[in-house]
Amino acid sequence: MREAQYRLAAVIMIPAAFLAHDYKAGTEKSVKRSQDREKVLVVNPPLEIPGAFIDYPEYVNLGAVCAAAALRAQGFDVKAADAFALPDSGARWLPGGHIHLGCDSRALLGSHAPGDFDAVVLCLSVFHRPFLRHEFTADFIRLAREAFPDALIVAADACFGGMHFVDYASETFFGNYPQCDALVRYECEAELPKLLRTAERGVPVAVDGRGEHVILDELLHPAWDLIDANHYFKFLERFYAAAGRSESRTNNGPCLPVAASRGCPFRCAFCAPPVSRGISPYRSHSVEYLSKYLRALKTAYGIRGVAFLDGIANAHTARFAALLDDLAKLGLEAAFPNGLRADLLQKETVEKLAALCSSVAVSAESASERVRNELLGKNLDLSAVERVASWCAGAGLPLQIHYMIGAPGETVEEVNMTLEHAARMAREQGAAPLLQFCAPVPGTPLREQCLDQGLALREFNEDYFSLFHETPAIDAPPLPESELRSMFARFKMRLRENEPEKVIVNLTYRCGNKCAMCAVGGRPAMDMPKKRALELLRDFRMRGVRLADFDGGEPTLHPDLFALISAARRMGYERVNITTNGRKMADRGYASRLLLSGITDLLISLYGADERTHENVTRAQGSFEQTVQGIRHAVELKPERIEFGVNTVVTADNYNLIEELLDFVAELGVQNAAVQYPTPFGRGSRKHVPPYEETAELVNRAMRKLAGRVRVSVINLPPCRMPGAEDLALADAGKYSRVMAFVNEPPENLGVYLARKRSHSEKCASCPYRIVCEGEYVFDNPDD
């Protein structure tokens, strides 16, 4: 049976319970009944959620203070117990990667005398998982019943927004949490007071808060005075420190959440704000109301910022601009954790936001128009996102762009379009991509579409947050779950171009070898001055780069190599690598000195298992014997902490002997080998390129034979050229996290530098590796 049918059955059953308790008649006797149940405790319970949560659990107490204000307006004597606003409220990590938010459950419930209340309202947000039996929530409700044995226990969604509200059937809730006497779904301000005057202990009753929508400007201000705001502000500080998340906060002092509107005038298929469905319309506070309210919050609590929890804060452009003007006059920062609608922003508005916000977010969802507008119902022109990205870059305002992949029926090509767009916006405009899987939330049109199509969907269980960024909810052609997850992981690899981890310092272009395909061959034989090398190392370390690689040419020919190694370690580089031809290490004393100099990684280049093959590449007599002796010394003398490997380049002249070479590497006692293909730089030419299919077969065969003895990686080759072992060619994606510092030219991102000589073909559009592959190398130099 489809979910919609099940929910309909529940809706038919619940009113019968209302009639049994004379619900309508009871409302007419509200004065008398309120005298019987006039003392109410409104509770925001603590949370236990996965550390990889989404949205903003730190602000769920807004629902509780809104409910308290509505009850106060109807004459109830209201108190509040907020798990986020006691002296010990904080955030602590639990085993299994979960995080506890708030205070101890018993301490919270014990903060008020049991006999003082006729009713206890438990505000259960989506983070409390009311849509299933969540043991932590169940334990809290059980403790509440024990603490207040004579009180009516009412659960309330107290929900007015948020894209990821998970719908559920009321009778399912009562089955999971039988200690509750009543339930108010969705908004609660209109229905909760009436329910408290009519409901009885022992017979479950539920009401739908969308039946009578409130006029927002007629509501009392949320009852923040019922909690200790200073304790709440301290909780927020502890939460952000523990969770390492800051996108929903302001930066310069105390901040409170505000909902300036409810619902959303748009109808995206994946979004589930409860008041945007059914009969409740999009509503907003007037600018005048908000201006007075914000001024009151600043006066009463000394806030310095406001987090607006609106589904779409800029739905009305003129109203939004006026709100920003008021915030500026009041000297308040702003955060919009649900993001803003890109096509409703103007350049002038972005400039105002730059003065008020530490960052903003917009949503593109998909770069495919079919996915974005037909499947997801976004109705957005992608050019609007690109305009906003340009304006934000110009205004110095950090921007995040939301994307999702894995919509039902989405193709690999369409996912690639989205990933490429996200990478381009990050590279060109500095916009941080926020990528997630398409997760059909219960209660959304998207979920109904999936059910209609008979698609296999993962259940929204206790750790449903993982469905957005760890395990796709949809497992169906043309993009099965495993492939989609792999593409997500590869995109993360690609993003490293914006987060450099390693600087490769070409210390010299001098070298004793004259390799036929050398990528720096033909450059002038010169050294980088020591002063420049130190400046580069210092500059990149200050920018957070953790790894250093000394390369060339031949770095062991640089007169200041050992001084530079020592300097790099003193600066705090975690790992320092030397890539060398190994010839100077044939001298045992030199090899020992280099291995004890502070390096952590060593890579020696070897091109054949015999003198003829090796020296046919190096064109240097005696190089084979010296290199092999250097490798032997490295294996014998290196400390345990040093990672050591051999690097080779397969060419048209030596590819047929690659198995012999890798066998020889294993015999020498080397456990790591990098197999590189020629590139069209320096002396690299078409004539050096080996036949791809035959070479891949030989490399695969050698790897299978040496499995467990030698770890092999493949470099400078598109993954599609390694059928059956594509992931071995993913080392190229790491080049976007590296910066190449040339001897006498400005530093440059290595991945971007190499990509200039690579090109995609038409078949690449539907390749699941495209986001980490720039295509085939293009050799435009002569063959001779």
Give an overview in words.
The chain is α/β, with parallel strands linked by helices. Among the domains are: 3-218, 3-Layer(aba) Sandwich (Rossmann fold), CATH 3.40.50.2300; 499-744, TIM Barrel (Alpha-Beta Barrel), CATH 3.20.20. The protein is 36% helix and 16% strand. It is built from 26 helices and 28 strands. The strands form seven sheets. It has a nine-stranded mixed β-sheet with strand order 24-23-22-21-20-19-18-25-26. A six-stranded parallel β-sheet has the order 3-1-6-7-8-9, sandwiched between helices. A three-stranded antiparallel β-sheet has the order 2-5-4, covered by helices on one side. Helix 12 packs across helix 14 (382-395). Mean pLDDT is 89; it is low at 1-36 and 274-279.
Compact overview of the structure:
This protein has 784 residues and is α/β, with parallel strands linked by helices. Helices cover 36% and strands 16% of the residues. The protein is elongated and about 100 Å long.
In CATH, the architecture of one domain is: Alpha-Beta Barrel
The helicity comes to 25-40%
How many strands appear in the DSSP assignment? 28
In the sheet with the most strands, the strands line up as: 24-23-22-21-20-19-18-25-26
Runs in which pLDDT lies below 50 for 5 or more consecutive residues are 1-36, 274-279
Based on Cα principal axes, name the global outline: elongated
- Describe the largest sheet: 9 strands, mixed
Structural class: alpha/beta
CATH superfamily of one domain: Aldolase class I
How much strand? 15-25%
